[in-house]
């Protein structure tokens, strides 16, 4: 089954809700980056919330999200677009920290630091806003980010369940956002539901669908507006890296030709290797001399 996000309103259109299942895209990220369980959980949560955030935009608008922490993972970066596509990098994928009860300790793996979101809305300037990490557990950090930087009271739930063979068993999340003028009684109802609800990864692992989770969160008042596929997708290509090589000065290119006779470039997002042989490098050099 493909990963997808439901976009809905609930409680007489006073609340907007996004609910996702993201097992496949997180498993794809795990395979690409060879992440250990705690890094898988951290990156998976980050990818899931980023995919949902991307769907809040339109056309070819894009987001770049960064978490810079002082934990062993260090930095994670996700690029998301309005088509539900995400790709990521992680500084240290080899992190496996657990609590005494056996649960993965994402908070310690991420640590203290900063969450920043840069929006490319195709205007003159990029817009960047940031907030301090609250727990490093990702969901609480985004709840705080939405309240502080976007002035949108929100509740974010995220979860990744990692199997004994280190593959992803279940993954997903939700973002619940209050519209201006949302009644106090509705807020109270939502708070009680969230307090009693099981972790999102547990619900998905028990074969609940995003539709089931949405029904729970909305207390049966949901109106589904859209259902969108989300996926891990990297658009890197040899042509794009050729452009990067063209941006190097002639001396540097000549040095690569003389010393290595070829250039090998590995994409940080998908780990694909692109090789430019001596002939191709000479062509790039010649194009600069025209």
Shape: elongated
- The average pLDDT value, as a whole number, equals 96
Q: How large is the count of helical segments? A: 10
Tell me about the largest β-sheet. Answer: 6 strands, mixed
Q: What is the chain-wise order of helices and strands?
A: EEHHEEEHEEHEEHHHEEHHEEH
Class of secondary structure makeup = alpha+beta
* Oligomeric category: single chain
The largest sheet has its strands arranged as 7-6-3-4-5-11
End-to-end Cα distance, whole Å, is 52 Å
Could you say what the CATH topology of the largest domain is called?
Hsp33 domain
Tell me which CATH architecture of the largest domain applies here. 3-Layer(bab) Sandwich
Instruction: From the alpha carbons, calculate the radius of gyration and give it in angstroms.
Output: 21 Å
CATH class of the largest domain: Alpha Beta
Helicity, as a percent range: 25-40%
List low-pLDDT spans: none
The tally of domains stands at 2
Strand content: 25-35%
Description of the molecule:
Helix 1 (23-33) crosses helix 2 (37-54) and helix 9 packs antiparallel against helix 10. This protein has a 6-stranded mixed β-sheet with strand order 7-6-3-4-5-11, with helices on one face. Strands 8-9-2-1-10 form a 5-stranded antiparallel β-sheet, sandwiched between helices. It has a two-stranded antiparallel ribbon with strand order 12-13. It folds into 2 domains: 4-232, 3-Layer(bab) Sandwich (Hsp33 domain); 238-289, CBS domain Like (Alpha-Beta Complex). The protein is 36% helix and 30% strand. Strand 6 (113-120) and strand 7 form a beta hairpin. The protein starts with a strand and ends with a helix. With 290 residues, it is an alpha+beta fold. The protein is built from 10 helices and 13 strands.
